[in-house]
Amino acid sequence: MIKIAIYGKGGIGKSTVTSHLAAAFAAMGKRVVQIGCDPKADSTMNLLGGRPLTPVMDLLRDGAEPERLDQISATGFGGVVCIETGGPTPGLGCAGRGIIATFQLLEELDLFGVVKPDVVLYDVLGDVVCGGFAAPIREGYASQVLIVTSGEKMALYAANNINTAVEQFAGRGYARVRGVVLNRRNVPDEEAKVRAFAERIGRPVVADIPRSDEINLYEEQGQTAVQGDPALPVSRRFFALAELLLREADA
To answer: Is 127 one of the annotated active-site residues of the chain?
Structure first.
């Protein structure tokens, strides 16, 4: 089982990267779980035809006591099992606790035993890597981390913080940074800036995703570009990343 946490600054496109990667794995015949770990709860929408999924925290806050996985999940494109943690009422409580509460519930409901996934993807907000937001790497849920960044200053700043947070758990059997995903914003010298960052932290750039009108077009239709047209050059970038991660898992 491949378990990957995908981190990045808010608004950098980590949910787009995660859902497209999930769609690529699914199109290759893999059983995939995608868990959105962001209070916005919009990670899985484009795997579900544009429909938002009720977050686990909303259900718990309303007094529900889920007893089956299908009460907190939905099945999207290619059979991807979609789950959203959600967060507290805006302005109240700690958003990271929503992740912790959801993970505890998923353990109780035996997510991995019931679904038996080949791939688990966690889409995690990376502006502040503390508390619940660090749970995927700290508690051993994920074994690898992909850092999504552009060449923008604040995106690289967040990426460095994420790498530092992961390094804090080095040697404990927790997740490690597998590499950097360049999600282009077409800023000056973008590739050079991101590759210099990746070299400095000693990790490769594992994917280079171009800024794409096709992604925007298909997201407006409530789907990923991988689903809309798997032959597109941008779709092939996600297939290539999925293939790379699968080859390493089989090695």
So the answer is: yes
